[in-house]
Amino acid sequence: MVTEKIPSVRSISLGIWVEVGSRYETPVENGMSHLIEHMLFKGTKKRSAKKIAQELESVGGNLNAFTSKEHTCYTARIVDEHLEIAIDVLADMTCNSRLAPNNLSMEKKVILEEIKESLENPSDHIHDLFSETMWQNQAIGRPILGDMKSVSSIKRKNIISYMKKYYRTGAIVIAAAGNISHQKLVDLVKDKFIFPEGKSNTAHPIMPPEKNEITFTNNSNAQVHLCLGYAGPKYDSKFLMPALVVNTYLSGGMSSVLFQKVRERKGLAYSVYSFLDLYKDSGLFGTYAGTDKDRAAECIDIILKEFDILKKRRLSSLDLKQVKDQFKGQFALGMESSSSRMNRVARLELYLGIFKTFGQTIKDIEKVTSSEILEYANLTLNRDKMALAVLGPANKSDIKKIL
After folding, report:
1. Does residue 269 carry a pLDDT above 90?
2. C-alpha torsion angle, residues 341, 347, 349, 354 (rounded to 10)
3. Is the pLDDT confidence value at 191 over 90?
4. Where are the domains positioned within the chain?
5. Looking at the domain that runs over 213-401, which CATH code has it been given?
6. pLDDT at residue 30 above 90?
7. What is the per-residue pLDDT for 190?
8. Catalytic annotation on 114?
């Protein structure tokens, strides 16, 4: 259990983090973690689905949840005086869900529509295609939502068995941030949450690509969407901060390198950005752009040239100071939210088993050097181990010429 007190606010953000996500699933289980997330909102012996929603909404709060590659999280945000209600609802949901067959049938239909929507949204779908391209047939590369076949085949007994394996005391972190007392949270939680003891199964390992992996997927759209990237640092890597600084340098706003060179100077894309996904034992550094089919190769060429510059030339003292100041400012603004603070302390506990103050993180950003960035770039931006996923009517031969 981990908390961060923010005396200046009245809100509390609470999260029940379960160490299970899509990378824990077998191919036939794909989508199981996400389906369970949906199902736990559908009623307990004590509360109907409507009652679960009403409990916190009636006092101005809200409930939510999300599933990622490595975690499933159930969250509540409430005014501090309603903490006990939030804990009772979250404990009831996660420990006492009925998992009724009629609700399962209905919720699978809902998720199948969610999958269809994702497939029909190319700026979303390309990220799933990129993950599949990067990680090939590994669990980490499969979509969090699952696919039509895997979700349709999941039965109630499969869900019960899966939860017994993964919803265990050694795989759960309860995190909170806001106007909260740690001891009060401990006292309220200890008799509410009852999970089987022990640790859950470990996740399927990640094997980085050993060669270039390129996929082309056609569709009926006029625009080409593409993601290009590399296996990146894991969460506890010494290169975590240099990687985050590089991400800000490339994609931290309208003044960033990719925005200026791809959009402002060339008019190649409306949306272009880099992103960084961090896992326990690996990571993913990537870039996205949506561009015209006849200019996709030019767009990729500009991105790759910027990567080559990062590998050959240290950032100047002025550039490094500017990007670190930008990163610190964005981090500080993000931390004004109790939800962001809760997410941060939970991830620190899950990945590192430590607590870091806001000030300690700022100092970590300030310590990043141009030499560390150069080393990170040369270790990560390897053209021989690159993944590229292209969605849309691209000219394959033009793209292959510049790789």
Report:
1. yes
2. -80
3. no
4. 2-189, 213-401
5. 3.30.830.10
6. yes
7. 87
8. no
Instruction: Output the CATH code of domain 2-189.
Output: 3.30.830.10
In whole angstroms, what is the distance from residue 169 CA to residue 175 CA?
14
**CA separation for the pair 268, 141 (Å, rounded):** 28
Question: What's the rounded mean pLDDT across residues 261-271?
Answer: 97
Average pLDDT of 137-161? 97
Which DSSP helix (H) or strand (E) runs through 2? strand 2-5
Choosing from 25, 29, 37, 107, the catalytic residue is 37
**What are the CA-CA distances from residue 300 to residues 22, 89, 175, 257 (Å)?**
30, 49, 41, 14
124-144 residues labelled b (16+ CB within 10 A) or e (exposed): ebbbbbbbbbbbeebbbbbbb
Q: In the structure encoding, which two tokens stand for residue 117, read together?
A: 């929507």
| 83-96 and 49-57 helices, crossing angle to 10° | 160
Please report, as a single letter, which amino acid is at residue 58: S
DSSP-assigned states of every residue in 310-338:
HHHSPPPHHHHHHHHHHHHHHHHHHTTSH
Q: How far is residue 72's CA from residue 64's CA, in Å, rounded to a whole number?
A: 11
**CATH topology agreement for domains 2-189 and 213-401:** yes
Q: Hunting for tokens 């990220």 — which residue is that? A: 127
Distance, C-alpha 226 to centroid of its chain: 19
**The overall pTM is greater than 0.70:** yes
What is the rounded CA–CA span in Å between residue 126 and residue 290?
A: 10
- The conformation of residue 375, written as its DSSP 8-state character, comes to H
Rounded Cα distance, 195 and 201, in Å: 15
Q: What is the DSSP string of 116-156?
A: HHHHT-HHHHHHHHHHHHHHTTSGGGS-TT--HHHHHH--H
